[in-house]
Amino acid sequence: MNLPVVIPISGGIRRKRVNAVILAMLLLASSVRCADAERKGLDEESLRSYMAGEYDLIGRKADLSSTYTGHVTLRDENGVLQVTRTVEGETEKCIARFDSVAGDDRIPVLRMRFHLDGKDYDATYRWQSDPDNYPRFTGYVYLADTKSPGLEALFPIHR
Fold first, then answer.
1. pTM of the predicted protein model
2. Domains and CATH numbers, the chain
3. Residue 53 contacts residue 96 (beta carbons within 8 Å)
4. Considering just the CA atoms, what is the radius of gyration of the chain in Å?
5. Using CA atoms, how far apart are residues 67 and 61, in angstroms rounded to an integer?
6. H helix runs in 96-155, sequence order
7. What is the mean pLDDT of the segment spanning 121-128?
8. Is 121:139 a contact under the CB 8 Å cutoff?
9. Exposure string over 42-74, b if 16+ CB within 10 A, otherwise e
10. Which of 123, 48, 49, 47 shows the shortest CA–CA distance to 85?
11. Choice among 21-25, 46-50, 73-77, 89-93 with the minimum mean pLDDT
């Protein structure tokens, strides 16, 4: 009588299959969460609250090597991030808005439009937390026909 030959499957093969299934489940859950985050976008209300405060400003003008310093105040007023910039003794008010760049990567940025030396500038900033969890901004400033963008950095004033 011929009995069927049973070849035992080692625990290693079974373990690999279980690991593959778990990995697939984690990847699916992660992609669903990322897609959900993209649909929701930024939590602008929390970001406005986080960013509100006073900052020291250091900058370099577009197309020039001259530098400047100043003071920036960000305030969340009725769901709008209001900006007060004081540079070289001149105070200007504008608003900041959230946007994204880099196409599908959707990298969040903060954009402003302001006047400096009688010229209209556009600025695009990225932010990150400093070691004390205060926001710090770095960005490029542009004129309409900029060949070389200017630079700005905003450092939180701790009080």
1. 0.71
2. 44-156 (2.40.128.120)
3. no
4. 26
5. 6
6. none
7. 96
8. no
9. eeeeebbebbebebebebbbbeeeeeeebebbb
10. 123
11. 21-25
